[in-house]
Fold each of these.
Amino acid sequence: MTLTQWRVLGEKEVGGVWAAVAEHPPAETIERTHIDSNTTLGLWLSSQPNGSQGRFLSAQWSGGHARMGRIVVVPGNVPLHVKASATPARRMLHCRLPAHVSLPRPHEAGVFEQCLNWSSPVIARSLSRLAREVMAPGFADVAMIEGLGLQIAAELAKGFAKPGSGHKGGLAPWQLRRIDDYILSGHWDCSVSELAALCGISAGHVMRAFRQSSALSLATHIAVLRMERARELLEDESHAVAEVAAHLRFATPSSFCAAFRRATGETPRAYRHRIRRNASQHGE
């Protein structure tokens, strides 16, 4: 895959699984069509919400452009037209699944709609881990990257085979997107009642429906998003650890460090050192 105008920060290809973390400069307007013979995914890594809109050029897509979420899935050989305006600089993970992985082509509009804002905790965690392995490879990065790609493919196959199964009895895509947008805008210590009000349902209902949609509790989901944002901020050494802790609304820097170590197995300082060492090895 060619990333024109993108500044590639890290790239790796193992066993047909290709992944790259890249940055794109600000743009007044964006209008392009993406197509690949293999299924591809994008994970939005920037702090601001994804403001792009997309439309699959397929007979199963009858509507106009729809808002794209944090995770976008583009099935193989299905063109996706993307447009946006006043787009700030942004960072994304791009992933292409192996050609030998056979995924069924979606045949229902509901699945295509889901592809623009795919909601799966397993895929979200796998893509986030993939981004970390690309930027700061571990001891088993080769096996890890290939394994993550195959796990993502397996989860997508379930979603393609059972259209809408992830939302039956759960939250609608717009409700899931609204919850994520609210949390990622800085409301890290939000209450269940706040999220329920955003969705127009009761607190008890939002807790049950969110778990049905994602297999995670709201609290766990918030914790995952919070730690992912912590990693992003720590990669920018202009932010002191105390500033990162305050941004994520931890009571003290020490409480943030303890939470980060429980979640990742290393301190914020050790994480930064590993990122810096990996960047120097790549000549950045």
Amino acid sequence: MVAVVAETALAQRVIQAFPLPADVEPLTLGPASDALLETACLWIVQLDRPGGRTRAAEIGRAMRRFPWLPVVAVVDPEHDPAELVELGGLGVRRVATWPSGEPAEAWRRNLVDVVCSAVGDVVRRTMNSADPTVAECLAWSTALAHKLPEAADLAEITGFSPRALARHLKRHGGLTPGQTLTLGRVIQALYRLAMTNQPVERVALGVGFASGSGLRRALGRTLGRTPSAYRRRGAVVEAMESLVSDFGQSGRRDVH
């Protein structure tokens, strides 16, 4: 189930931009309840919705209660920047801006980027027991999996030389840079499988695998299950808890 907390107009734009399941019924009144968020794969929040505002403090509370829930904030271009600073303090790296007219293709692409960034934020805030560089590399690999990053990009964002980063990741996370990128693709795929009705092949291509078979092999090696197992939120949470637990201990995970 996907929780879309917004007025109907925004919910329609979101569903058009990101292929949410056809049976999603957007909420139109008030903030989401804990009961709903507990079953959600994605929370899209309109901070300045008519009839009431969802404050950054409410979002922070939800993140603490439901750490595996990606949160996307959509704001008006004239929204109070102070609250955006508060969101940054909660670990929200990107927000989507409400389109002034009918959403263009560029706005749709940007929203997909923001949703993927929100999944990376989940990795970043839940891997607090892992080495900071390992956690940042995996969060970044997850957030940008659909843009096909390479190992050299990981070195650039961390400030390490490629060889130094490879040594650091292997020592503290048990993975090579290439395996870290693959695990990021796997994590983004988990959330896409749960929050969309896309076929496995399209999910795989969307996160950088050459085919659905490549995603199936990666999931089998990493988590021992097939893509169909992750069409529900509970399975994704279990997988994420397992991955984070591994990194909190030895970081060893069979990813190729």
